[in-house]
Fold these 4 entries.
Entry 1:
Amino acid sequence: MHLSARPALIVTLSTALLLSACSSGSSHVASGPTPTPTTPSASPGATRSAGDSATTATIPANVNAHDLYAADRPGLLSAEAAKATSLIYVPDDEDATVHVIDPKTFTVLRVEKVGRLPQHVTPSYDLKTLWVDNDQGNSLTPIDPRTGTFGKPVPVEDPYNLYFTADGRHAVVVAERLGRLDFRDPHTMKLQHSLQVPCSGVDHADFSADGTHALFSCEFSGQMVWVDMVHQSVVRTINLPRQTSQHPKPQDVKTSPDGSVFYVADENSNGVFLIDATTLKVLRFLPTGAGAHGLYVSRDSKDLYISNRKGASVSVLSFATRSVRTVWRIPGSSPDMGGVSADGKVLWLSGRYTREVYAIRVSDGHLLARIKVGGSPHGLCVWPQPGRYSLGHTGVLR
């Protein structure tokens, strides 16, 4: 939300061995995405024809058919991610800076100047670059994750957020102010195709289990849009039902591990909507806390961490029961965007309205640190993270 306003590598281990390494918690360097054709999506409104199979041939097969996040276990760093220096990147949309934090000492190492209104720091599909999304600066600032060095900004119009198609062929710039999704070359960021969306305030998304579709939130119109990412077209618009005196204001989106449900955080409704991933019908609404905003999956795929930025809390939802099993209270906080550490032990979140960053121990919700940063920290990125490739945002990995 505004304040204003592959190449693929050949997999060398079988799925069984990979999952064994996951369960043991031992360190392991994961292979890159396998270019295995996926089964055509049964998603509603799919427009694929028999002649389109080549367009999805490079979408990597899921490591585990029952868990989209099986490649995100502790220790499963890809060969590329394993080269990265462990750092926390905190964009500040008020100060046009990025604070770089050492996660071991909880100290700010340096502050880098970037373009105006940096909203998020996004890992590239191939995990070789981190991009700072300078929204009003109309640019993306590249970061070399191996050294933490900031490069020369690349001109890109209105990059509020950034995603990548599941086959790695396109970067998808979420141009919120302009009301469109811009499909670009994932390396040069040259514009390929602009898709106007029929809603207001498009900003966050997550993908279907097969990677062919994505569900985007539109915060200003209280809607969701279902996008065919293969054909780059809008298939359906979903109106969210009002839960309070205010219109819905959807924010972050997260797919359940089994791919059956989309969870949508809603800031005005103070909780999450559950949307069926096949029918796209709203199943129900679950209250979590005031200003529900960010959604993050635990490294064991059992829990969903929900940051309630107006409620000074983080709700922990069990995927098994689809209910909140506990709430972590952080007095005087405003937990916003972030991610889970590579080892799965710490949840890192920016404090949007309190000029700080939180490090939270996920075993018990204990606050490990409150780190002072700039005026309005937002889309914090923890890097490196486990996974074979990035779908974007602050670290949606598969």
Entry 2:
Amino acid sequence: MMKIKGKVLVVVFFCCQSLVAQTYIRVGPSVLGNYSPWFEEDVYLNIGGEISAEFSLAKKITVNIPFAAHYGKHKLHGDVNETVFTENRLVGICPEIRYHPRKRFKNMFYGLGGEIKHFKSVNFHPPSNANPRPFLVGWEYYFGFSIGQNRPYRRGVLTPYLNFGIGANANEYPVNAQVGFTYGFQRNVKTKKRFNKSKSWQ
């Protein structure tokens, strides 16, 4: 039993080492558009960006785990006071599996995943004397799919992408779309031979 456990640990170690050795740390800006059927002003744009890590799982499959944050400010619908604006803040994580038809980290890819976002909206309805700064706070959940292209450069890879998200019924915004790009820096872990014939264990 101990031998089997030892072999399993060795396999897990080398698999994890392989994943770390093929990791891209990504960062870049994006624009998030939220669609709401409940207001006449249907699309709300939010500007932000993401920082993520993309790991290799197989020859043509990777997993990308981004942390994204977006902020948007727009005129409060139906309010005659032009100084009142609605402010939206969305922060969350959006993991997805990416399939690369030709070669990993090069050319086109297709993604499938989900989104979990914390949503906060300030002045989501006209303020009053009783509530001068009304706000709405909650969580939003999306199932998403994306398409993008990796463009390798000498020191990294540029990746423009387009993502669509379909949300749960309880979401304030049932549909969203995000367009942006990231620049990835490869993180290589180089292993050295620890044993040399001319020397002892190093």
Entry 3:
Amino acid sequence: MNSDPLVLPAISTAILITTFFAIALGFIFKDMLEYQVARWDAYRDTQDTIEYKNPHLIAAYLGLTVFLTLFVGECLSVFEIGRLLSAVLAVVVVIPTSLLIWFQLGEMLKLLVSGGSEAIDIDSYWAGQEVKK
């Protein structure tokens, strides 16, 4: 082990880099999605759906997914279970979750279009009902 405190091991550097790019692409995706929702809101009369399946949003989401997969793989490799097993576990955990979130995002945006913001307001869902004891 190197005694120089300013030198990071390769695994730590990989974790930092993948974390940075995953967070950066997450913010890019969020901002692009917010823009599409705001655009739909401004042009509700002529636009009947929120266009979230455009190439820029898909590329940002795919980049986010790739860097999250790499991040999880690098973090799992810290436990010295092998790079291949770390990569397989990362793919098994991240990719299905990413697909689920993408499809659920589409359903939430459809609800937003059909019922407005009240349709996706989870906090007010139970507000009108009394809780039974």
Entry 4:
Amino acid sequence: MTTATMNKSDLMAPPVAQTIQQRSLIIGVVAAALSAMGAFAAPDSFYSAYLTGFMFWLGLSLGCMAILMLYHLVGGGWGTVIRRIMEAGMMTLPLMFVLFIPILLNLPKLYFWARPEVLADPKTDPKIVDIAHVYLNFNGILLRYVVYFAIWFGMAFLLNRWSTEQDTPEGGAKSTLRFRAVSSIGLVIYSLTISFAVIDWVMSLQARWISTIYGLLFIAGEALSAFCFAVVIEHILSKRKPTSDYLTSTEVHDHGKFMLTFVMVWAYFNFSQWLIIWAGNLPEEIPWFVRRLSGGWGGVGLFLVIFHFSVPFAMLLSRSFKKNVGKLVWLASWLMIMRIVDIWWHIEPVSHPTIHLSWLHFTILAGMGGLWMSYFFHNLRSRPLLAVYAPQTVRFLEPSHE
């Protein structure tokens, strides 16, 4: 395919996208119904499992937006082939906005600082009471939740709208400087907002505990999830036109290198947090790790060290492995599972001192995931798989491209 033969209809997603969209919706609805019943049948497991599922799928949406902005800043064929995948994932944010409402309406089920009886107890740490009155309260969580999503929506809307304009000859001729302007500021804003969101929704589960690097753990994880997801989707599409006409081992290799990068970054941030807290040995900091290294949770932590870092790191060192999308997709799928395990390890020990895995973890992840995937493929099918008249696409499809 070249710029001379480029046709908008020829770049639309293959019929398999519609098939997966329909099946995902069915799975999502059925699993969501089972999960809703679980909210009444097993409330002790439901809310922590719900937060785990929400943080994973929200992280995938935001990770797609972050990688898209990175692409607009640095360019490259690696981003041209997954640009529309990232945009389709980014535009699932409205769904995540709605899925946060059950958490918002049930804060006391998850957060001890939202329970009136705890705040009224004279034995409660006065610092917790002060934090609850000033920052961690329903009005504060509601206000910041609206602000976070408003900012994310705003950036996603602009990037998506300008990208749609590049499907026309007139829009394709416009400068890409506006993408760079939004992305340069957007990456900073994204980093700040997700860091504060993680403090509100995850770190505050243990409100006395603090970590200045905590938000970076989730940022690295979200970027890794987005690249793994891109590899999975491009594997599905690479067997069919039009992706089979333009996707080469060069772009797949680049995606594998990014996966390797963020596997190492994730490990570096986690090790840095552990090392600093271990060296400091402060009573305000060590309870977080004490809780996650006892009651069987230490085994989960070791599992993450081996299968979220060590094994993927060794496999991704192979150049031939990174260039083969058929092999890389299995590791990408595994790493997405590891991302869920990692989030589960962050959240679940607060509610369950001993290792705990409920059937609700599976139904909630499947329910949210089915709805998310259905929405994603709806977005992906609405436009060509490449921004037809974008300068990057024109250069990418030149005959010299291999």
